[in-house]
From TrEMBL:
The keyword Signal does not apply. Residues 13-26 have a biased composition (Basic residues). HAMAP family: GTPase_RsgA. CDD domains: YjeQ_EngC. PANTHER family: SMALL RIBOSOMAL SUBUNIT BIOGENESIS GTPASE RSGA, SMALL RIBOSOMAL SUBUNIT BIOGENESIS GTPASE RSGA 1, MITOCHONDRIAL-RELATED. Belongs to the TRAFAC class YlqF/YawG GTPase family. RsgA subfamily. GTP binds at T160, K161, A162, D163, G211, H212, S213, G214, V215, G216, K217, S218, T219. Coiled coil: none annotated. It comes from Luteimicrobium subarcticum. Residues 120-270 form the EngC GTPase domain. This is Small ribosomal subunit biogenesis GTPase RsgA.
């Protein structure tokens, strides 16, 4: 896969002095313990160590000097040394970042010159969209779907405020492209109908929740994780900041037995710059199209509607079954719509 370099690549670049081995052997950190990063706040990392084990504890840590150029993000599995007791006023040191199963990225933009990893090791992106008030914007949903496919994550579309409008149109648009869809609404006595279906989709997984202001994401998070305040209480004690004022991602554990799953709330992240995403990355989200493209498209084919001899159009037309043709056309159109969504600004 081709992609632009990001800050995680800096480590592998040779220094000006070349790749001369260091004279001093680095300590092996044999006594390191592993934790999951649940929050990041101004150089302080909150970790959950020994998750679901007898010594489970929240540990506050900073990065060791050798990692100063590496970014540690929510969801990372890291090794720490030093005082990892989790006692008040202790600070451990992160010495290693575990290999990442998935990376959700966003492109550099005017306010930040680096392409950044936003969350590591998440399984699915939950796009929270209100069916009305505010009106759903498919362009924004498409961009989030592209970000998820690029990251190797599944997509769950959570349609809120079903008391105000029907979910049918959005369901018809996104289910054919492999997104799972759940629908919720709140009753007069503030109960959320559909919450069990949401819980079932989140169970045992790490899910990143994304949503624009006013779509009902906070309502949903509070219902899913009633003790969210307590889960991050340790950080609040130390930094004086709560998750509601934090602008970076925070991982909240779903209530239940061991392995119940995590939701990562992204208060400061409303959408993603996608300039780093290639057509091939989007294509990977569509197994059938990907296979046809690999076998039958000419070299260098862009797969767009104006591409000469793109085999995808022929493939969509060639079934004898009208229903199959319809589905193929829908998927091909969706794929091209997503590719186009990459280059549109979030403000459009
Ligand atoms: N009609 C209706 N309103 C809802 C529903 N869920 C939430 N709301 C309302 O929608 C508004 C926004 O909900 P929040 O949960 O604060 O939305 P948010 O996405 O977290 O928005 P920010 O807090 O601005 O980031 C609130 O006034 C809620 O009471 C629903 O299912 N139906």
């Amino acid at each position: 896969m081709s992609r632009l370099p990001d800050e995680s690549d800096f480590r592998s670049r040779p220094s000006r002095r070349g790749t001369r081995p260091r004279t001093k052997q680095r300590p092996a950190h044999e006594h390191a313990v592993t934790g999951m990063v649940t929050g990041v706040d101004r150089g302080r990392y909150t970790l959950l160590v020994d998750e679901d084990g007898p010594d489970e504890r929240v540990v506050l840590a900073m990065k060791a000097r050798e990692l100063s150029r590496d970014r540690v993000v929510c969801g990372d599995r890291v090794d720490v040394v030093g005082d990892a007791s989790g006692e008040k006023d202790t600070l451990a040191r992160i010495v290693r970042i575990g290999e990442r199963a998935t990376v959700l990225r966003r492109t550099a933009d005017d306010t930040d010159p680096y392409e950044r990893i936003v969350v590591a090791n998440a399984d699915q992106l939950v796009i929270v969209t209100a069916l009305a008030n505010p009106e759903p914007r498919t362009g924004l949903i498409d961009r989030a779907v592209v970000a998820a496919y690029d990251a190797g994550m599944d997509v769950l579309l959570c349609l809120t405020k079903a008391d105000l409008a029907s979910p049918d149109e959005l369901r018809g648009l996104y289910e054919p492209i492999g997104a799972r869809v759940v629908v919720t609404h709140r009753t007069a006595d503030r109960e959320i109908v559909g919450l069990d279906a949401v819980r079932a989709e989140l169970a045992g997984r790490t899910s990143v929740l994304l949503g624009h202001s006013g779509v009902g994401k906070s309502t949903l998070v509070n219902a899913l994780v009633p003790d969210a305040g307590r889960a991050t209480g340790h950080v609040n004690d130390v930094t004086g900041r709560g998750r509601h004022t934090s602008t970076s991602a925070v991982a909240l554990r779903l209530p239940g037995d061991a392995g119940a799953g995590w939701v990562v709330d992204t208060p400061g992240i409303r959408s993603f710059g996608l300039a780093h995403v290639q057509v091939a990355d989007v294509l990977r989200g569509f197994d059938d199209l990907d296979e046809v493209a690999a076998e039958r498209c000419p070299r260098g084919c862009t797969h767009l509607a104006d591409a000469p001899d793109c085999a995808l159009d022929e493939w969509a037309d060639e079934s004898d079954d009208a229903a199959v043709r319809d589905v193929r056309h829908l998927r091909l159109d969706s794929f091209r719509r997503l590719v186009a969504a990459r280059s549109v600004s979030d403000r459009d």
